[in-house]
Amino acid sequence: MKGGIMEKLSELWLAYRHWILISGGALLVIIMFFFTSMSHNNVTPTKMSDVNSSSVSNSPDTQSTKRFIYVDVKGAVIHPGVIRLSRDARIEEALKIVKPTSDADLKQVNLAKQLTDQQVLYIPKIGEQANTSDLGTPGSANSSETGSKININTAGKNQLCEITGIGDKKADLIIQYRQEHGQFKSVDDLKDISGFGDKTVEKIKPQLSV
């Protein structure tokens, strides 16, 4: 019985060995291709991760600060503070966001002036003479050049900062005092502001007027 089976298998081998060898070779190629593809797929996610990381770092969102400027708006506006604008924005566009108060003196403001990043924009009230550099209007000689005193009731922040001994913080405090208490009656009223002691006021008094 076994001899008969072996004989049949031998006959089949002799008859079909050519096709068996071809089929076996094709199967081997398919197996090798399958494992090569699997190996390639395992590497692909890492490469895609690198590509995604690169595209994120160069995406428009991460470079958005290049398209915008930030301006600090103070004075006679309903919503004072730092606002974001397009890089070519004008003062008129800033005022649409912060909304001028009813007593804002826009006649002093050059609405067509282009703003710059980190600029301080001060909007004066009617009757207040703000510094021209805060308004975007054509500038004039400052007090240090002309030798004139600075009026602490009308000076803008930049003009106040020209006073020897007055920096950004103290200039803001002077403007805040004016907004909350009205105009100074005398230079000595500066002593009512925290940080302005007798010695400080006496030192800067020759540069000031009311």
Automatic annotation (TrEMBL):
Cellular-component GO terms for this entry: type II protein secretion system complex
One of the GO biological process terms: DNA repair
Residue stretches spanning the membrane: 12-35
Domain Helix-hairpin-helix DNA-binding motif class: 158-177, 188-207
Gene Ontology MF terms in the entry: DNA binding
Keyword match Cell division: no
SUPFAM superfamilies linked: RuvA domain 2-like (SSF47781)
Key words of the record: Membrane, Transmembrane, Transmembrane helix
Protein's name according to its UniProt entry: PTS family cellobiose porter, IIA component
Species the sequence originates in: Limosilactobacillus frumenti DSM 13145
